[in-house]
Design goal:
Length: about 375
């Protein structure tokens, strides 16, 4: 059974290998960065109930044979005084004029101008990021991307005070490989490099330490996209082929386009109110009952969440929940769950559900 769990320090090599498939800002293929991220993640899972904007949570997908085959992340807050969240606000304005001619025939001209206006915030939303699945497992019949992505919302629901009122997902647009094999962005080549003198890879690496150069070097006034090459105009706000599945998944649970795009590559930003995301809203703390889910069971996520290590385990499994007779008396919904699922979650003791386990479940 595939299990999503918090990353451990011993996962460093596997995560570094997976990062090479994505090579993005919040999960670059650099050992020192991955090592720091693992240390920060370990501290974040072990933190107190209070909100801390520095928290970063790194999850890994473990295959039945023990291999780490995927990762995903949550950043408690994207945008702070130390590192503001920078974006392009997409603005559209209409213009109209009636143009006379010498023949006396007038011509109506109506134009919709798209502009990119640089913005930033110091009090940003919680960000979802760093989702990578081993390419050999894409298209797996168990749809492993769902577990990698959606289990994070169960974790958010179970630790609601650790996260902001809004959630952000930055999606990758169409990118391409340059002659040297480095990742390139058509928008950055046409725009960002002109104002900064940096190529996409150098700018991406620099922004890991300091994004202030974007604010200082980019124009303060809106930029008309009609001045960009047509091919570049077309990709602003678009998602790349490998990201379309993630986009559909997020929109299905409540995310919408925010009207913002990434200043590096033009990838769209999706946002949602945290408590309006269906998985966060519908996640329930349950009383596990050992047994076989009946024919009424439907697919969903079952997670074991603890205040001590291991802190988080989640699996994709049939969910069968019976509402409590007296919820006002503190009774929990009953979740019928197999021994295999509880064993995978580390919640089975002497053939029975562990009395200390906090089992959360949600239907999807």
């Amino acid at each position: 059974m595939f299990v999503l769990r918090e990353a451990a320090l011993g996962d460093e090599d596997a995560i570094l290998e997976l990062a090479r498939h994505l090579n993005t800002l919040n999960l670059p293929p650099e050992r020192a960065v991955v090592r720091r991220l693992l240390a920060r993640s370990h501290e974040s899972f072990a933190g107190n109930p209070d909100f801390d904007h520095r928290r970063q949570f790194l999850f890994v997908l473990q295959a039945p044979d023990g291999r780490v085959v995927g990762t995903s992340m949550i950043h408690a807050q994207h945008g702070s005084f130390e590192e503001p969240h920078v974006f392009f606000r997409v603005i559209r304005e209409e213009r109209y004029a009636r143009l006379p001619s010498e023949s006396g025939v007038t011509r109506d001209v109506h134009k919709v101008h798209t502009m990119l206006h640089l913005g930033r915030t110091y009090n940003g939303p919680t960000e979802l990021g760093g989702l990578v699945l081993d390419p050999a497992l894409r298209g797996h019949p168990q749809k492993l991307g769902r577990l990698l992505s959606l289990s994070r919302f169960v974790f958010i629901a179970s630790h609601r005070s650790w996260f902001r009122e809004r959630l952000l997902a930055e999606l990758l647009p169409p990118l391409y490989k340059g002659p040297s094999g480095a990742t390139r962005s058509p928008l950055w080549d046409a725009l960002g490099s002109r104002f900064t003198g940096l190529d996409y890879e150098d700018a991406d690496r620099l922004s890991m330490r300091d994004k202030d150069f974007i604010w200082r070097l980019f124009p303060a006034l809106p930029i008309h996209t009609s001045l960009l090459p047509e091919g570049v105009q077309d990709i602003i706000g678009q998602v790349g082929p490998a990201t379309r599945g993630a986009e559909r998944l997020l929109k299905r649970i409540g995310f919408v386009e925010s009207g913002h795009v990434d200043p590096f590559d033009g990838g769209p930003h999706l946002e949602a109110g945290t408590d309006q995301v269906t998985i966060v809203r519908d996640t329930q703390l349950c009383q596990p009952v050992l047994g076989e889910p009946g024919p009424e069971a439907v697919p969903g996520i079952i997670a074991n969440i603890s205040t001590t290590s291991p802190y988080f385990r989640a699996v994709w499994a049939p969910v069968s929940i019976v509402a409590p007779n007296d919820p006002d008396a503190g009774e929990r919904p009953q979740l019928t769950v197999t021994a295999e699922v509880l064993q995978s979650l580390g919640a089975l003791a002497d053939g029975k559900p562990n009395s200390d386990a906090r089992i959360f479940a949600v239907v999807y």
